[in-house]
Write a structure and sequence with these properties.
Blueprint: H1 31-34, H2 37-40, H3 47-60, E1 90-97, H4 110-115, E2 122-130, E3 137-142, E4 147-150, E5 153-154, E6 161-162, E7 165-169, H5 173-190, E8 196-200, H6 202-211, E9 215-219, E10 223-225, E11 232-234, E12 237-241, H7 243-251, H8 261-281, H9 288-300, E13 302-304, H10 311-321, E14 329-333, E15 336-339, E16 342-348, H11 350-361, E17 366-367, E18 376-377, E19 416-417, E20 421-423, E21 430-432, E22 438-439
């Protein structure tokens, strides 16, 4: 058994992408840049530390990717003078590439290079939406095995347009047409304009966890996975993970939940919520040296859109998140059900996805009513909702033969609950940053 998806078509893009049969993967965790590079720079406070940090971070930022509108879409704004006051909030997409090119270290072997090189695939893709009033934030994780329509995309080489397709695996968007193609695909799915974006690599995950001194996660049961590099063998209970071990934890699929990609997403949300709590509540924000290290780790390992190359922009985005609060930071998985044409793939759950997209477009805070996902559990929960629908990755131990019937509210327009918030359908899984959830091992 390998940890590689089956490909429906040959990827197109500026560089060749090679995918061997190495049990590896995957997913530089995009969103941890979100609560790092984004929140972090503003708090690098005073004196020589701040002056050096601004200079060093600025010189570390890579040349930006010019975000182009896909054919038929409105132009994407590039020059945003004041992010914290931007009408309609802030939308930022982070695509984690599985490419091993130029990473060095443990990724320098022939096997690792054969596994994935070149542009790579966007095997972890997260969309950050900060509300216009900055009182709420949502991070949406898109399953890598989601079968979707990919629109026509600008050629990264500047030579015209790469034709779209009505049915392709979501994680091929990066190798087809670069960062612009991932942005165009998510924009088409959600209805949002996305002016900020970046790709990140495996090394960024290791560097970020090092910068904060490790992240402590709760394991409801042991997590073992021989398919990651390095392999995982973590006992139940509290575990502080750092460096390459943190990367293996975030990439693990065989070791968590039901062994599916959807389980991996909920495991990543356990880690991200723990990271958010450490940054917000664990003293990181009051430590300028650690914050500088965090910002440096971010910019050293991302390739940003042109709109993110100015360090001032990171500061302005950070200001938008400063007073959001952990209870109002919500991590969700884009809702999916089993693809009727392929039990190893998923397709959007149209009714639930429409409710989520509507909340995003209308800039409404959301309330979760479903479970924490396949690989996570909330020890404080009074009831445990049924498992989420859909497959993802290779077959789960229990794979539905037909899409699960939606809950009574799954097809309805979300009902307002209190101060403008909406209840998401119970088929949408996720958690808030305030929830101290635990990962369930696959054993």
């Amino acid at each position: 058994m390998t940890d590689l998806p089956r490909r429906h078509q040959r990827a197109r893009g500026p560089e060749g992408v090679r995918h061997g049969r190495l049990p590896r993967r995957r997913g530089a965790v995009a969103a941890l840049k979100l609560l790092a590079a984004v929140v972090v720079v503003v708090f690098v406070s005073v004196g020589s530390v701040a002056a050096y940090a601004v200079w060093d971070v600025a010189r570390s930022i890579k040349t930006g990717v010019h975000l182009q509108a896909a054919p038929g879409q409105s132009a994407i704004p590039q020059d945003i003078p004041n992010v914290s006051a931007m009408p309609g909030g802030i939308n930022l997409l982070l695509a984690g590439t599985d490419s091993r090119s130029d990473l060095g270290g443990i990724y320098n072997s022939a096997e690792e290079q054969d596994a994935s090189s070149g542009a790579g695939n966007n095997d972890v893709t997260m969309l950050l939406h900060i509300a216009q009033d900055h009182k709420s934030m949502m991070v949406v994780s898109f399953p890598r095995d989601l079968m979707v329509a990919i629109p026509d995309c600008p050629d990264p080489n500047g030579s015209g347009t790469i034709d779209g397709t009505s049915y392709a695996q979501f994680n091929t968007a990066l190798s087809r047409g670069g960062l612009n193609c991932v942005v165009a695909t998510v924009s088409k799915m959600t209805g949002l304009t996305i002016p900020f974006a970046a790709t990140i690599n495996f090394n960024g995950v290791s560097a970020m966890s090092n910068a904060v001194g490790g992240v402590t996660v709760c394991l409801a049961s042991p997590v073992t996975d021989d398919y990651t590099n390095p392999p995982l063998d973590l006992p139940a209970g509290e575990n502080t993970i750092v460096g390459d071990m943190a990367l293996s934890f975030l990439r693990s699929r065989h070791g968590v939940g039901d062994g599916s990609d959807l389980g991996r997403i909920s495991n990543q949300q356990v880690f991200l919520s723990a990271l958010a709590r450490k940054i917000v509540s664990g003293g990181v924000l009051s430590n300028p040296v650690q914050l500088y290290s965090l910002a440096k780790a971010a910019v050293d390992n991302i390739t940003p859109s042109e709109s993110l190359t100015n360090p001032t922009t990171l500061v302005q985005i950070a200001l938008a998140l400063k007073d959001t609060g952990l209870d109002n930071m919500v991590f969700v998985q884009y809702p999916a059900v089993t693809d009727p044409d392929n039990p190893n793939r998923v397709v959007p759950d149209d009714q639930a996805a429409s409710a989520l997209d509507e909340a995003l477009v209308n800039d409404q805070p959301v309330k979760l009513t479903g479970s924490t996902g396949r690989a996570a559990e909330d020890p404080t929960a009074t009831a445990s909702p049924g498992p989420d629908a859909g497959a993802g990755g290779e077959p789960s131990p229990v794979t539905p033969t037909t899409p699960a019937a939606p809950a009574p509210d799954a097809g309805a327009t979300p009902a307002p609950t209190g101060t403008g918030s909406v209840d998401l359908p119970s088929t949408i899984t996720g958690q808030t940053a305030a929830q101290q959830t635990c990962t369930k091992g696959n054993n």
